[in-house]
Amino acid sequence: MILASQSVFFTCIWVTLMPNAFAAAEIEKLQQRCSSSVTRTRKQETRMRKDDSTKVWPLKYEQLLHIEDHDFAMRPGFGKSPVPVGIDVQIESIDSISEVNMDFTMTFYLRHYWKDERLSFPSTTNKSMTFDHRLIKKIWVPDVFFVHSKRSFIHDTTVENIMLRVRPDGNVLFSLRITVSAMCFMDFSRFPLDTQNCSLELESYAYNEEDLMLYWKHGNKSLNTDEHISLSQFFIEEFSASSGFAFYSSTGWYNRLFINFVLRRHVFFFVLQTYFPAMLMVILSWVSFWIDRRAVPARVSLGITTVLTMSTIISGMSASMPQVSYIKAVDVYLWVSSLFVFLSIIEYAAVNYLTTVEERKQFRKTGKISGMYNIDVVQAMAFDGCYHDSETDLDQTSISLHSEEDSIRGRFTGSPSADSPRIKRRKSLGGHTGRIILENNHVIDTYSRILFPIVYIIFNLVYWGIYV
C-alpha cells in the first residue's frame, strides 16, 4: 500500500513539471532567435548610417564640435595671451529719451567675434554651421554687460533672438537683439536750447584686460544705424564709436567700449508752448500804460491776470523737468519776463501814489484842482465808459425833464434835435476822450511806454545771441 501511494505521488509531480520544462526550453529558443534578429537589425542600421553620412552632423553636433571633450567653463587659450573679442553694433532704434529720469532706451543688434579652436570641426566645403540659443549654455561666450544700465532684456518673440555661427576653423559669431535703458548724464543749463551727449558703455564683467580684450571689429565703421531713426524732440547729429579703459581697485583694468551719440533739441515746440506765450503776456502788461490812471480796477485786474498767467507757464515748465539745482536757460527767460510783468504793476502803484500826493498839494494851495479835469468826472468816465462834461451836466434835472419831449420831437421831425444834451455828450465823448487820456496821463506812464519795450527788446537780443 505504501509503495503504491509513493508511486502515485511521484507520477503526479512528473506530470506537473514536465510541461514547464518543455515550455522553458521553448522560451530560451525564442529569446535566442530575438537576440540574433536585434543584433542583425543594429548591424544594418550602423551600415546604413555609414552609407548616409549627411545625417550625422545635425543629430550629433555635440560630437562634431567636441563639446563633451572640453571644459568650456574656461576661456579659449586659458593661461596664454588674452582672447580678443571683436564687437559690432547695428542700432535699430532709439525708443525714448527722458529728461525727468535722465536716461534713454535703445534697441540694437550686438555681435561678438572671437576664435575658439575647441569648436573647430572638419569640413570639405568650408561652410559655417548656424545654431540657436540652445547651444549657448554649453559653450563659452563673452560676458559683456552694459555699464550704468537700468533695465535690459533679450527679445524672445517668437523665440530668443540669439544666433550662433561657427566656422570650421573655430571662428565664432554670436549675435543678440537687445533693448537697454541706460543713464545719460544730461546738462540742462542751456535747456531748451541744449545739446546732449549720451553714451552706452560695454565691458566684460569677469575678465580683465589680461584675460579678454574687447575692441571694435571694424574700427569706426563698427557702429551702423538705420536711416529711419528719428525722435520727436531731438535731432541726432552724430554717432561714433570709441574705446578706453576702466579701473577697479579690487580687480584691475578692463577694456571698455563706448557708443556715443549727440542729440540736439528741436526748439520750435518750446517757442510755441513757452517763449511766445510769455512774450505775449509781457506785451499785454504794457497795455496798462495806455489806460487812464484813474481806472484803478482796469489796470489792477490786467496786472494780476498777466502775473497769474506767467506763474502758470513757469509751473507747467517746471513740472516736466528734473529738479536740478542750477538755473536753466528757459528759467532766465521766464523769470525776466515775469519781472517785466511785475514791474508794470509796481509802475502803476507809483503812478497812483504820486498822483494822489500831487492833487493833495494842489488842493491845499488853491482849494481846487486846477489844470486838471474834475476827479469825479474822470472816475465816472473810467467806470461807465462815457465822458461827463461839466457844462453839459450843470442842470441834470432840467435835462432829464426835457429828454422825453426832445425825443418825441425828433421822431416827428425825422431828425434828431441839434440841441439835445445826450447828442452833445456823445459828440463831446468822441472829441475829448483822446485829449483827456493824454492830458490826464502821468509822466511815469509816458516814459514807461517807451522804456519798457526798448529794454525788453534789448534783453531778447542778448538772450538769443548768447544761447543760440
List keywords for this structure.
468 residues, alpha+beta, Acetylcholine Binding Protein, Chain: A, Methane Monooxygenase Hydroxylase, Chain G, domain 1, 10 helices, ion channel, ion transport, transmembrane helix, Neurotransmitter_ion_chnl_CS, transport
Low-confidence stretches: 50-59, 381-405, 410-419
Structural class: alpha+beta
Tally of helical segments: 10
Distance between the termini: 135 Å
The tally of beta strands, per DSSP, is: 12
CATH superfamily of the domain at 83-265: Neurotransmitter-gated ion-channel ligand-binding domain
Just give the CATH class of the domain at 83-265: Mainly Beta
Shape: rod-shaped
Q: How does the major sheet shape up? A: 8 strands, mixed
The proportion of residues in beta strands is 15-25%
Mean pLDDT over the full residue set:
79
Order of helices and strands: HHHEEEEEEEEEEEEHHHHHHH
CATH topology of the domain at 83-265: Acetylcholine Binding Protein, Chain: A
The CATH architecture of the domain at 83-265 comes to: Distorted Sandwich
Helix fraction?
40-55%
**Radius of gyration computed on alpha carbons:** 48 Å
